[in-house]
Amino acid sequence: MRQIENFIERNPGYAFCFLLLLAIPCFFVNLGLLPLFADEPTRANVALEMILSGNYSVPTIGGEYYYNKPPVYNWILAFFYLSLGSYSEFVTRLPAIIPMFGFAITIYIAVNHFLKDRRIALVSAIFFMVNGRMLIYDSMLGHIDIFYSWLTFISFMCTFYFYERQQWFWLFLTSYLITAVTFLSKGMPSIVFQGFTILTLLIYTRNFKRFFSWQHILSGLICLTIIGAYFYNYSRFNPNLDGYLSTIWDQSSQRTAGRVGLGKSLLHVLSFPFEHLGHLFPASLLVLFCLHKGFIQGLKRNAFLKYIALIFLANIWVYWLSPETRPRYLLMLYPLLFIIWAHAYYTYRESLPVMNKIFNVVLLVLGILVTLSVPLAFLSDLQGYVAYLPLKIALVFFGCALFTWFIWRFKQHKLIPFIAFLLIVRLGFSWFVLPHRATHDTGNYYKSAAMEMGKMSQNASFYFYQYHPAVLNIPFHDRLIFYIERTRMTKVKFTESDAMPGYYLTFDRDLKNPKAVLLKTYESNLKLFKVE
After folding, report:
1. Among 324, 347, 370, which residue terminates a domain?
2. Which of 88, 106, 237, 252 is the most exposed place for a label (fewest CB within 10 A)?
3. Cβ proximity of 122 and 12 under 8 Å
4. 211 has pLDDT over 50
5. Domain check: are 171 and 104 in the same one?
6. pLDDT tens for residues 124-176?
């Protein structure tokens, strides 16, 4: 055990690579098992319709203009579809999962460079992948947020890197180039992150005059030129730029306090820190070491730690005051906490022996309890949809038991086997929980129904009757469109007329055309008609 710990002490980079390799099967197994849900089909629809139309400038859904997000992430998703020749759920989620690994590597490289401590780099990087929120939710969804947050975090790091070297032009240029890309991915939040980050850096370093420097003005103009070039090109196909830009603005402002009322806003403000500590568990256990009396002074003494603490505070308040904020909107800020927490752990654990002992006992108890619960999978009626169930249960149990044993025996590096233990937990989640969800997910019914409608309507026009994308109270709306279009490989259209020949899907009504023939009625009052 001492030899293993000594090896980890001397070679944290090897431990990081080992954990990263271990994470690959844990996160990729059964990644494509669940049908698309939440925002996934929206991203998939836009990318698929770009491919079908050959027009990559204008996002559409159902042939109608889609204004909620600019198209960069859809271009990336379309690239994956075309490169791999597949429109599967697995491929749809790759542009989110691959950046998650890239994000972890970026954290490791940045922390190792600025703090010169590969232990802190290792823990903060891998905890980005194995905190509770990422472990069992965001890492299995093809959302834009991991990719977007990765680019934003890179901007944070580049800003400090060039500040250290007093290379102001490169500081402004790189951050504004990234802002142009992130704006064309998600819209207004990019301007907020860039603005607060630059202002915070300039104010706390007493360089505010740089705000009016030619380097800053030129970089800002380059950013605006890139964004403007896209919208100019877009206007060649759709002149309604006011509608596009106002929707992007509305998407960023719709979760503010003014939308939900004072009571809900106050409750959100009070519960916000505790809620996110829960989302980040068990990484948030490291907060215990931030209770050291020298913690704040330790941050102030280190320029990098001071910078990321200020950047976190400068940006978090926007979400703290927005009651309908979702945790995935903060993925670029979470690593700043992980770095600070990991630094506190390695700096103060020896001077907090009681706290350190409690922390180690918690890790061991969590390992024992979860390991003992693994055999309960035999009682969960998984035999029907998990192949080689006994073997998989044995492997997960052995992996959890092995790393729990390492937690018990290690003296100085208990966090490393604990992180490996969490990855084995994720493997068990992928093997057991995802098939269970997939079997009982009602989305399977609508996926099958949509694919059936797509097959029935091959070589004919397909219409959504009296229904438009702005009406969001039909949760399976975009999911139906994607699976219908994927099956037909032609675009569907929205219409308020039922006079044209073809197939019509209705949500809550019949067609008025007397020539319309009802082919089939599905759940949720979905009806498929055919007009000759």
Report:
1. 347
2. 237
3. yes
4. yes
5. yes
6. 999 999 999 999 899 999 999 999 999 999 999 999 999 999 999 999 999 99
Q: 256 with 325, same domain?
A: yes
- Helix/strand/coil for 190: helix
473: pLDDT strictly greater than 60: no
CB-based contact 528:456 (threshold 8 Å)? yes
- 421 and 379 inside one domain: yes
- Residue 454 identity: G
pLDDT of amino acid 469: 47
For residues 378 and 375, give the distance between their C-alpha atoms in angstroms, rounded to a whole number: 6
Residue 247: pLDDT band by 50, 70, 90 thresholds?
A: confident
Average pLDDT of the residues in 10-38: 95
Q: Are residues 431 and 472 in the same domain?
A: no
> What residue spans of 131-186 are helical by DSSP H?
132-136, 145-164, 168-186
Asked if omega into 375 is within 30° of 0 (cis), the reply is: no
At residue 460 the predicted structure's pLDDT band, cuts being 50, 70 and 90, is: very high
- 333 domain-assigned: yes
Same domain, 289 and 215: yes
Q: Is 29 left (phi over 0), alpha (psi -120 to 50) or beta?
A: beta
- Write down which residue in 390, 407, 437 finishes a domain: 437
Tell me the Ramachandran region of residue 75: left when phi exceeds 0, alpha when psi lies from -120 to 50, beta otherwise: alpha
Quick: pLDDT tens for 268-293.
Answer: 899 999 999 999 999 999 999 999 99
> Is residue 299 domain-shared with residue 423, that is, in the same domain?
no
Q: Are residues 463 and 415 in the same domain?
A: no
**Could you tell me the CA-to-CA distances from 385 to 106, 142, 221, 530 in Å, in that order?**
37, 24, 56, 37
Tabulate helix, strand, coil % of the chain (nearest 5).
70, 5, 25
Residue 262 lies in a domain: yes
In a domain, 192, yes or no: yes
The single residue listed with the structure tokens 């192949």 is 387
pLDDT computed for residue 475 by the predictor: 44
- Give the structural domain span for 271: 96-347
**Exposed (0-12), middle (13-18) or buried (19+): which is 436, by Cβ within 10 Å?**
middle
Burial 490-499 (b: 16+ CB within 10 A, else e): bbbebbeebe
* The overall pTM is greater than 0.85: yes
The span from the CA of 22 to the CA of 400, in Å, is: 13
Specify if 488 maps to a domain: yes
What is the H or E stretch that residue 65 is in?
A: strand 64-65
Domain tally for the chain? 3
Pull the structure tokens for residue 276.
Answer: 């996110």
Is residue 280 domain-shared with residue 143, that is, in the same domain? yes
